[in-house]
Design goal:
By secondary structure, the protein is an all-alpha fold. The protein contains four helices and no strands.
């Protein structure tokens, strides 16, 4: 944990209960709304995990024509 987080937590605990509840709500909402750069980073991490799994032989690839064929049939 970052040292500033511990200091921030101490300061936050000194707030009255209503202010702590308001802050907690705002923090929780911020977890539900990732920024575009966070979304990009998460997708990049996922793509790297998938590629590593493919290269290690843990994941089997599916030919593109089969993927598109399935997608078209499911959308029809």
């Amino acid at each position: 944990m970052h040292p500033n987080i511990e200091e921030l937590a101490k300061e936050t605990m000194a707030l009255d209960i209503e202010d702590r509840a308001l802050l907690a709500g705002k923090l929780l909402l911020s977890l539900d709304e990732p920024t575009p750069s966070e979304v990009e980073r998460l997708w990049l991490d996922e793509a790297e995990r998938r590629l590593e799994g493919y290269r290690a032989g843990r994941v089997q690839g599916i030919p593109a024509d089969e993927v598109f064929s399935r997608a078209i049939s499911e959308l029809s």
